[in-house]
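thread: overnight batch results

M.L. [08:02]
morning all. the overnight job finished for the chain we discussed friday. pasting input first so we're all looking at the same thing
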Amino acid sequence: METISSIVGATLGPGGQPVLIERFEHGLPALVTKDGVTVFRALGFDDPAAQTIMETARDASVRTASEAGDGTTTATILSEAIVRNIHRYCYQNKRVSPQRVVRHLEKTFRDHVEPAVKRLSRTVELGTDEGDRLLKAVAGVSSNGDSDLADAVMECFEITGDEGNVTILESSGSSRYEVEKIEGFSIAMGYEESCAKFYAKFINDPGTQRTIMEKPVFLLYHGRINEIQTVALLMEQVGSAWQTTQFNHNVVLVATGFSETVLGNLAANFSYEGSINVFPLLAPMSPQSNGQLQFLMDVAAVTGAKILDPLNAPIEMASLDD
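M.L. [08:03]
and the structure it wrote out:
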């Protein structure tokens, strides 16, 4: 815990030190960052016990970032201090169990810390001068004092509000921050990578060489589809709902992979009169180990669809509500 705290804690605050992280992906340069959660995720130990402790502490810090949006470094430093002081107290008071100390800390947190935080917190409303000023101040702290980045964050909030979706992309050339509003959900993956050699079969607008799907149903699957029977039952449900005008006959099927047999079957039935149109969309890869799952989560956030997977939510057991 002390090693973790010293490495991650070095990035704390405006005077924090940047950390150089070696990337294992081929062709990518080393990463220089002051972001605590990025540093934490790059840590690893050869000792299995130390690795287990590190992963436990990292989960707590990452959860803080997920729920609060920031505070990973602070959570890491506090976790180390709490563990260290509990260990010292129990060593000096051997008759007191660690569980009893933890229960006392939890009670103290509920009775004193939480009420104090709520009492000191301030409600911020976007669109007001005071609310925008405070939001920009928070953006400035989170961006390590980069005023241009803070201005870009404010511009994003003006466009999307509290509930909008923002995607951050790096591009070569200009070092400026640019904010662009894009209607819909853009995907960097090429069309031919999804449809393979059957790409021409899925074009239903020959004039513009595009595939247009009006008000489609989205089916998200975190897995590879090797047999058409895997989705046959769910497609029958969509077809029945279409006959009763409950759903459109267009379906976008998003998965991490498709066999050539499945693509050929979908292509043969695409735009066939009297059948539903199923367009296969391959979840794009990224340098992250879970990049395809992150993409599916983004699509789920936009469409409201549920992510199915072979273990927890088999596609064979799915319903139209998913």
